[in-house]
Amino acid sequence: MKTSLLTALVLGLHAQPGFAQDRLECLLPQGGRILMEGPCESPSGYRPETCDTQYATRYLGPNGAAPVELGITSMRRTDDSGTPAEMCANFHVRDGAVHAGGAAYGQYRTVVQGKLSALEAKPHYDDAVEQQAERASARQALSRPGYTRMAVLGGTWVVEEALTRWHWGHYADVDFYRTPLSHVSQTSSTDEGKSWSAPLITSSSRLFTIGASALDQPDAARPGAAVIADKRQQRLDLQAQGKQLVLRCRLPDRSEFVFSGALPNEEDLQRQSGGKLPPFVPVASVAYVAAPGRAAIGVDRELSLIMGLPTAPGPQQEQVCNSAGLANGVPYIGISLLDQGGKRFTHFPFPDKIWYPSEPPRKVSATLMREQLTYSMGAALTRRARVLALEYPLVSQACISAVRRGEPPACPIGAVMRSESHDNGLSWSDLAVAKTSWIFTSGKTPDQQPGRASLVRE
User: Which of 19, 88, 299, 392 has its CA 20 to 30 Å from the CA of residue 26?
Assistant: First the structure.
């Protein structure tokens, strides 16, 4: 029987009438195949479920081996994830064993010589340990693409979560899931999951290949035949319909950045929160309008550094505008700025050495320590003639320490860390501390900066 026909027959076993079906074949490096199927419902309402998250799954071994029923695989399918490659990367082969996730958190399945085994590995720690691990991750400016592996190595249970340096546009021109893994969060148990070691953020992985993306792991499955119900455009169309939350951030030259996000309709509000608006709604679009009547220029949401819009009027909405400003006559937002032709906001893939570095140059570190300064997430980009500059505002450590938890810091800027590029972003100088900024005014807090955008109140 031909492979295509066999695949179609197997995938048809779990079909449910009345629903579009996700049907996906994942090809493993040793010749085996994973077959998944699940019903996909059409999106409706404010937060439509693109597809059912429960997939009936089976494994077909190489050389015509008997199929092995794996049961249900739980997998997320939303507007920004769930492509065939992203789904297949959850399966891999290690030392002849096929590894797959389960239907719930901490469930792992393994197929060895046609036999299925399953176990639960749920690392648990106290709050202090988890907070310490999170702080370690933040210092490295790391992000989670959503892939976790578990293996039993010589009697020790090892769980690793993949981490990348994508964090807020670090790889601005690269698909999130294609960014190379740089670290893992690693923990282990020597008593079959009763107790676990503290999570360790390390670049020495035992289960992943560092330097390859989650989708390009040499032992991971790749998509074969696929019928995926793609509802992304429908979701985007829905977000553009109905009532919108619009925030306008005006620059000193009267140009504006316009943020919009879809508000839930009354039916969804009642069902989800009893009629109460959520504190934030996702950003649907960002646009720059140079002057009334001029065509808007779209801005990549990730480059704006704003992922959600506060629904309640007040300081949080004003802080959205703090990400945008005008410096040296050039509009900037987040980590992008208007190009010299005035037609688009440019992407710059910043190198590790200048993008929220965990270890700044020794001279910079010495200066920060001596003057008791620290830098925050308020990086900004500008241009003077043909020279680009990325700057981090530096503020007093004492001021940051005094800020109450959950409140935004309102500390005056004392200096900046700056890196320059003389070749339009192809290469960047090492970071250096400077008392004079190209962007920020010393002695003023971020919301007091004369070049910053301000919220337009209707």
Answer: 19
